[in-house]
């Protein structure tokens, strides 16, 4: 495929935007080459500036679970836009989406809307610190919770791809309050708790990780964290920015039947508009201003266009729970097809999958934490990425990302994707 116009647009962008992009991982730095500039998208497809049609497995990094330009979402946004795009005053639709979210997600009484997943996680940690009157947090290597200072300590995703796990600009003072553990290592978390008695405010994690590829919690891991938090008076935060309204209507809490104290959302909850949210039971949420002492605010929070998009999205997911089964079935089909194509050419790989999240690692051993995810063969991934792109299949330009399956993908699209993998496989590293 030809990407001439994309390259020209990228060259122009670099004069006025750092690296030509507004979020680093978009720049293809990990895989080489110039990023694709999108013109429009519909359903399962992206249409780029050179007139190529690409099957999309990124889906705006998660939000477009029903495909691009999903009509009820588009209609809701267009209708709202005619009536004013922001007021900075309360609107009824904020209560409507809050009521629906509270109904769908277990264990939450109230929810506060913000503008991104970063804001949601940042605010959730502040709330946990305010509530417990403690400073330290435990996070896991390879989990990404946005680009707020406290989290840029061995974050996954772009922060890993760019080799800046500890970003300059994050002060030592901030970094010292973030204690790191390995994902799926309960014993280590226990040791950290014991070494920091009465100091840990919260444990934050992606209950199913998606920012070091897709990594599932080991049996008993989430339950163990729940017990440790209870034993030590700390709050458990599930960052469900990626998994919320995706793995089940009520997220991982519902799917795995473990309750967090605070849950954060982003991506799907905004239907593709800039939305994040955090939620908890009354006792915790009433610690927030204006009721309680913990400050948190936003000029555009609860924006009417964003709320309209989110409400249309959540309403669809709430009304048709079969969507989640369909997504899982499609993902399983893709998994089998890809594995078969790679096995045929003896390409060493591991595929992780849950619901509509899947990742292909060019690693021989099981991928269960950040260290094992890092063992994947990067050169092989680069070839894989560019090979697929050339065949019109667009996956994330980094080995540390998850693919997102959407309801808009047809089995024909999945077969096209599997055929593309089969075509690329002979060029990948042999066993
Ligand atoms: N948490 C998780 C689990 C995420 O995947 C992301 C985004 N990839 C964030 C937080 C940050 O969200 P945002 O990019 O909307 O700030």
Automatic annotation (TrEMBL):
Its EC number is 5.4.3.8. Its cofactor is pyridoxal 5'-phosphate. It is found in: Cytoplasm. One of its GO terms (biological process) is protoporphyrinogen IX biosynthetic process. Pathway: Porphyrin-containing compound metabolism; protoporphyrin-IX biosynthesis; 5-aminolevulinate from L-glutamyl-tRNA(Glu): step 2/2. It is an enzyme of class 5 (isomerase). Keywords: Cytoplasm, Isomerase, Porphyrin biosynthesis, Pyridoxal phosphate. The modification N6-(pyridoxal phosphate)lysine is found at residue 267. It catalyses: (S)-4-amino-5-oxopentanoate = 5-aminolevulinate. It comes from the Bacteria. CDD domains: OAT_like. The keyword Isomerase applies. One of its GO terms (cellular component) is cytoplasm. Gene3D superfamilies: Aspartate Aminotransferase, domain 1, Type I PLP-dependent aspartate aminotransferase-like (Major domain). GO terms for molecular function: glutamate-1-semialdehyde 2,1-aminomutase activity; pyridoxal phosphate binding; transaminase activity. It holds the Pfam family Aminotran_3. Belongs to the class-III pyridoxal-phosphate-dependent aminotransferase family. HemL subfamily. Homodimer. This is Glutamate-1-semialdehyde 2,1-aminomutase. The gene is hemL.
């Amino acid at each position: 495929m030809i990407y001439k116009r994309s390259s020209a647009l990228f060259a122009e962008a670099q004069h006025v935007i750092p690296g030509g992009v507004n979020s680093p991982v978009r720049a293809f730095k990990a895989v080489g080459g110039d990023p694709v500039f999108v013109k429009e998208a519909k359903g399962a497809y992206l249409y780029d500036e050179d007139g190529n049609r690409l099957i999309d497995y990124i889906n705006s990094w998660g939000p477009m679970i029903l495909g691009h330009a999903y009509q009820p979402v588009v209609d809701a946004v267009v209708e709202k836009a005619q009536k004013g795009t922001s007021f900075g005053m309360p609107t009824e639709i904020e209560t409507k989406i809050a009521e629906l979210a509270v109904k769908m997600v277990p264990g939450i009484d109230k929810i506060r809307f913000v503008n991104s997943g970063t804001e949601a996680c940042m605010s959730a940690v502040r709330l946990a610190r305010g509530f417990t009157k403690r400073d330290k947090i435990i996070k896991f290597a390879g989990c990404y919770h946005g680009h707020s200072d406290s989290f840029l300590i061995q974050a996954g995703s772009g922060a890993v791809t760019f080799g800046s796990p500890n970003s300059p600009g994050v002060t030592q003072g901030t970094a010292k309050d973030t204690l790191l553990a390995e994902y799926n290592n309960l014993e280590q978390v226990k040791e950290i708790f014991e070494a920091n008695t009465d100091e840990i405010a919260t444990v934050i994690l992606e209950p199913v990780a998606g920012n070091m590829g897709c990594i599932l919690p080991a049996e008993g891991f989430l339950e163990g964290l729940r017990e440790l938090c209870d034993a030590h008076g700390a709050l458990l935060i599930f960052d469900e920015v990626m998994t919320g309204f995706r793995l089940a209507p009520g997220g991982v809490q519902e799917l795995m039947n473990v309750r967090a104290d605070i849950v954060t959302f982003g991506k799907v909850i905004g239907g593709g508009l800039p939305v994040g949210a955090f939620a908890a039971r009354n006792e915790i949420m009433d610690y927030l201003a204006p009721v309680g002492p913990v400050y948190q605010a936003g000029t555009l929070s609860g924006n009417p266009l964003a709320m309209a998009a989110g409400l249309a999205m959540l309403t669809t997911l709430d009304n048709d729970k079969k969507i989640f089964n369909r997504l899982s079935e499609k993902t399983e089909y893709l998994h089998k097809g890809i594995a078969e194509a790679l096995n045929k050419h003896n390409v060493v790989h591991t595929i992780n999958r849950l619901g509509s999240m899947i990742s292909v690692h060019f690693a021989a051993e099981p991928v269960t934490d950040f260290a094992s995810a890092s063992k994947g063969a990067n050169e092989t991934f680069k070839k894989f990425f560019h090979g697929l792109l050339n065949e019109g299949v667009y996956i994330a330009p980094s080995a540390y990302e998850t693919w997102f399956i959407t309801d808009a993908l047809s089995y024909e699209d999945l077969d096209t994707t599997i055929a593309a993998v089969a075509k690329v496989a002979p060029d990948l590293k042999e066993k």
